[in-house]
Structures are given as C-alpha cells and as structure tokens.
Amino acid sequence: MIRKIFREGFAAGVLGLGALSLGSSLGSAAELRAVELSASDDGAQLTLDLSEGAQHKLFTLEHPDRVVVDLPNTHLADGVRAPGPEGVVTEVRFGAQPDGTLRVVAELKSALPAHSGWVPDEEGHRLILTIGAPVAQAAPKAVRTPHAPGEGDRDVIIAVDAGHGGEDPGAIGRGGTREKDVTLAIARALAQRIDAEPGMRAVLTRDRDEFLELRERIRRAHAAHADMFISVHADSIRDRSVSGASVYVLSVHGASSEAARWLAERENAADLAAGARHDDQSTLEPVLIDAAQNQIIGVSASAAERVMSALEGVGEVRKAAVQRAGFVVLKSRDIPSMLIETAYISNPAEERRLRSAREQARFADAIAGGLRSYFTQNPPDGTRFKQEHRGSLVSAGGAALAATP
User: Fold this and answer.
1) Parts of the chain belonging to CATH 2.60.40.3500
2) Which helix (H) or strand (E) holds 390?
3) Which of 57, 83, 108, 236 could form a disulfide with 171 if both were Cys (CB 3.0 to 4.6 A apart)?
4) pLDDT for 184-200, tens place per residue?
C-alpha cells in the first residue's frame, strides 16, 4: 500500500492519500533518455535525463520497499538500460502504463524517505530523486545548473527543517501534543507554500518522524545548495500563560536575553538527550563566529525581520525584535539561517492552535510571505528574482528618463 507521499518542486495539488502531482506543465511527449544511479548503504540519488520537463508523481510502496515515479506522457528512448544494484538500491526497473505513463521503480533494502527536484540543462531536463541521506559523490548532479553572476533563472532554494523528531519528541503540551509532530506538519505546509511561489523551491531536511543530529540538518541544507535555512520549532516554558511567536538568528556576542540563552542551550543539548554519539561534544561547545559567518548572520537577521513582520499579521508575537542566541543548528558559514518558534506548545490555547491544520497553514503562509518579501528586495545572483529585480530597475529608469523634460 502507499505509505507516504513526498514532494519537491512546484506542487499542483494538496497532501493526501493519493500521489501528489509535481513538476512543470506538460508539453509534447517527453522521452526518458538516460538513468544514472549513485548509492550508499543509507541513501541514493537517481538521475532521470528527460527531453522535456514532465509532470510527475512521486510516492513510496512497501512489501517490498520501493520509491516510484510516474511520468505521464513519457516514453523510454531506445537503448536505455536500468542501472544495476548499488548500495541501498536492489533494483531499478521501468514499466509502460496503458495511459502513456512511464513508471520508474527503485526497489530498496529498507524503507527510506524520498524527494525530487528538476534541474534544467542545455539539452533537456533532469529529474533528481534523492532517497534517504544525500549521497556525497552524487551531490553535484543534484544542484542547480551553474550560472554566471546575474544570469540565469534558477529557483531560490529554501531548506525547511522540522525541529526534533524520532526519539527526540521535543516539548510536549499538556494535551499530549508533541513538538516533533507539529513542526513536521508546519514544515510540510511551509514547503508546499514555498513551492507555490514562482522562483522559490523548498527542500525538507526531514519528511518523516526521524531523528537528525543538529550538524546533519546543516549538512542536508548544504547538499541541497540552499539559499536559506529555516528551522521550525514550538517553544515550551514553565509559565503556561506565555504565548506568541519568536524568530532567532545566531548570536555574535552572547544571547539577546536570558530566555534566549536558556532556549539555545536546551536545543543544543537535543543530540545527547536523544542518544547521539557521545564522542562528539560539539553541540555543547561555545559557538565560535568568524568574519564570513558574521556577514551571513547579518543577512539572516535582515531576512528574519521580514519573517517576524509577517508573523505579526497572523497572531501574537512574543518578541517584536529578532532574537539572538548560540543555536548550533544555525551555525552555517555560508547559508543564512533562522529558527522560528511558531508558538508556545506549553500554552493550552496555543497548543490547540498548533494542532489545527488551518493554523499551521497560516503560519506557513506568513513565513513564506516574509521570505518572498526578502528575496524580492535581496535577490541572489542567477535567480529568477534577480532577473525580475533587474527588469524592474530598468523599467523604473526608463520611466524616469521619459518623465525628464
């Protein structure tokens, strides 16, 4: 039976029990021209080389465990062979469906999450399927096509990190709500909202109930070549009357408050609390900042201010200003990062709110809106945002010249 549906790219549907439609719109019949596999014992990357970007459906099956991709209006080119078994992948096979859909199946040794993304190139399109942990040697295939500064129309990539997971439940509300569950629900809703924005694409660090060490979350964001890292949480405090959202960036000179320092220490100790390797004490060491990282923190703070402003429109905000603390999960030297405490799960009213799909969607809408506002004004090179920004400047300049006597 279908166990779980994973999504990446532009979604044309909603999460549910059926498969999710993904990708770009269909044109003429597409052709699958080559298939490449790179795999290890805990993950794999399957690259499908297509003549055109086709709509696709990605889902998983069990008994045996499989990742399945359906490519409507697509046929297999002559001479294409499936790669042999490698790492966690025991078999790759193709099958033509009666309605013209080409099915690609990767059979696995064990159940793993999967997500997908389109990478256009000069001669066609590549659909990248990442199964389980990203494969280091295959990572260059999964990244966007490189562009010269100021050129191209790639998407801005947002790594969305659902806090806690697996044996680490995070905070637990009085009604039994677990932080790891609501953060995953909000992260999925946020990823869907981001993917609906032209020029933006989301990558989930986890799309199931699994434990990830703090450094692994950063590593997955790097493997996706993310332009921004967003870690979603739901705070808890002894005083159950406390409520409201907060947004944090990495601290340069100590925490902005005692509460921020305490929260960072608790989050940084999550690895050891969940039974991570005890020979790696890095999560408990002081966070050291170098010059390059200091610059990244400035970018993070600017983006966080936009998100904070957007969150004010959907509910109470605990701290109107962006907070700062030594969160290890934010310690990336080249990816602007922020941690969002969406609400206090320890507050009974906010616990109910966190469990509501409608409220989860409101959080997602606000965060995505804040991110879009930031990237519209601060577009990374090579992105569609940069093209649009340049076009608006040219239009504004032309209008100014036309108005000159």
Assistant:
1) 1-145
2) helix 384-403
3) 236
4) 999 999 999 999 998 99
Q: Pairing state of beta strands 2-5 and 56-61?
A: antiparallel
2's tokens: 């279908």
State the Rg of the chain over Cα.
Answer: 22
- pTM as predicted: 0.59
| Neighbouring C-beta atoms of residue 384, cutoff 10 Å | 17
Name the CATH topology of 1-145. Answer: Immunoglobulin-like (2.60.40)
The pLDDT assigned to 292 comes to: 61
Label residue 350 exposed, middle or buried (CB < 10 Å: 0-12, 13-18, 19+).
Answer: buried
Alpha-carbon span 264 to 243, nearest angstrom: 18
Q: How many CB atoms sit inside 10 A of residue 200's CB?
A: 23
In this predicted model, what pLDDT tens digit does every residue of 43-57 receive, in sequence order? 888 988 888 766 788
Contact 165, 212 (CB under 8 A): yes
Cα distance between residue 71 and residue 239, in whole Å: 52
- Identify the three-state secondary structure at position 117: strand
What share of the chain in percent tops pLDDT 70? 72
> Using an 8 Å Cβ cutoff, are 317 and 305 in contact?
no
- Measured over the CA atoms of residue 178, residue 179, residue 182 and residue 188, the dihedral's sign is negative
Contact 299, 347 (CB under 8 A): no
- The CA distance from 343 to 262, in Å, is 17
pLDDT band at 124 (very low <50, low <70, confident <90, very high): low
pLDDT of residue 263: 62
Q: What pLDDT is attached to residue 285?
A: 42
Dist. CA 28–CA 188, nearest whole Å: 31
Per-residue pLDDT of 357-371, as tens digits, reads: 999 999 999 999 999
Cβ within 8 Å of residue 98, ≥6 positions away = none
Mean pLDDT of the chain: 78
- In order of 13, 69, 113, 132, 134, the CA distances from 3 in angstroms are 18, 14, 10, 15, 21
- CA separation for the pair 221, 167 (Å, rounded): 22
Query: Is the confidence at residue 327, as pLDDT, over 80?
Result: yes
CATH class of 152-379: alpha beta
Domain with CATH 3.40.630.40 in the chain: 152-379
